[in-house]
């Protein structure tokens, strides 16, 4: 249970990462991924990387620069332009549904205009899921200059698209529905220089 705790990736650039273990029975037709990050990086960095044997960017949350997030499904991506952070925690949620190909992006509890992405696609269930690095191969192939440096917390993955109410709930860290990956019952393994610390402030 990592409630009120964070992963601190101390080095920049970093070769550290955290492997997350999820029990997925079948391919994902819908999903929502949420997390909180705190960093002063201005270079590109990966936040959440879900690679399968067929596709290294099956799900990827990536920040190429301070004013932009990229959300990948099945190797294709859409870009969400955002105001540059003011040196505070940023909470992001991205959800996708296969039937409509609709990608949703929420930043700090607010929705951005929806975009179209990979209609009819299914994300394979057997995956290497990582924080801190962007996989260019199943479980590896890292580029240090896409690594994350800073603090990560409140990582969740659901096998459904969350409703707007639940998206806001995730931002407020209130009661959330059962998840495939849940911060309060996370199965993980830290590799390299990653430290679990208490969160400094809410």
UniProtKB/TrEMBL annotation:
Q: Identify the keywords attached in UniProt to this record, alphabetized.
A: Acute phase, Calcium, Disulfide bond, Metal-binding, Secreted, Signal
Matching Gene3D superfamilies: 2.60.120.200
State the compartments where it is located.
Secreted
Q: Which example biological process does GO assign this protein?
A: acute-phase response
Domain Pentraxin (PTX) intervals: 3-202
Question: Which coarse location class describes where this protein primarily resides?
Answer: secreted
Question: Entry cofactor note text?
Answer: Binds 2 calcium ions per subunit.
The upper taxonomy is:
Eukaryota, Metazoa, Chordata, Craniata, Vertebrata
Pfam families referenced in this protein's UniProt entry, alphabetically: Pentaxin
**Native source species:** Podargus strigoides (Tawny frogmouth)
PROSITE patterns in alphabetical order:
PTX_1, PTX_2
Any one GO CC term of this protein is:
extracellular space
The record's section on SMART domains has:
PTX
Q: List the disulfide bonds.
A: 34-93
Q: Name one GO molecular function term.
A: metal ion binding
Q: What is this protein called?
A: Pentraxin family member
In the record, the note on similarity to other proteins reads:
Belongs to the pentraxin family.
């Amino acid at each position: 249970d990592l409630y009120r705790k964070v992963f601190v990736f101390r080095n920049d650039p970093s070769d550290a990462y955290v492997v997350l273990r999820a029990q997925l029975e079948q391919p994902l037709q819908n999903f929502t991924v949420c997390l909180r990050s705190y960093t002063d990086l201005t270079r590109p960095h990966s936040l959440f990387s879900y690679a399968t044997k067929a596709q290294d960017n099956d799900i990827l949350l990536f920040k190429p620069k301070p004013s932009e997030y990229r959300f990948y499904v099945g190797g294709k991506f859409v870009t969400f332009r955002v105001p540059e952070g003011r040196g505070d925690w940023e909470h992001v949620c991205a959800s996708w549904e296969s039937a409509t190909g609709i990608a949703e992006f929420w930043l700090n509890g607010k929705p951005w205009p929806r975009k179209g992405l990979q209609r009819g696609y299914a994300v394979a269930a057997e995956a290497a899921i990582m924080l801190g690095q962007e996989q260019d191969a199943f479980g590896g192939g890292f580029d240090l200059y896409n690594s994350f440096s800073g603090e990560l917390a409140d990582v969740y993955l659901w096998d459904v698209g969350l409703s707007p109410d639940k998206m806001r709930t995730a931002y407020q860290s209130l009661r959330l529905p059962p998840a495939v990956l849940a911060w309060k019952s996370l199965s993980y393994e830290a590799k390299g220089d990653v430290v679990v610390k208490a969160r400094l402030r809410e």
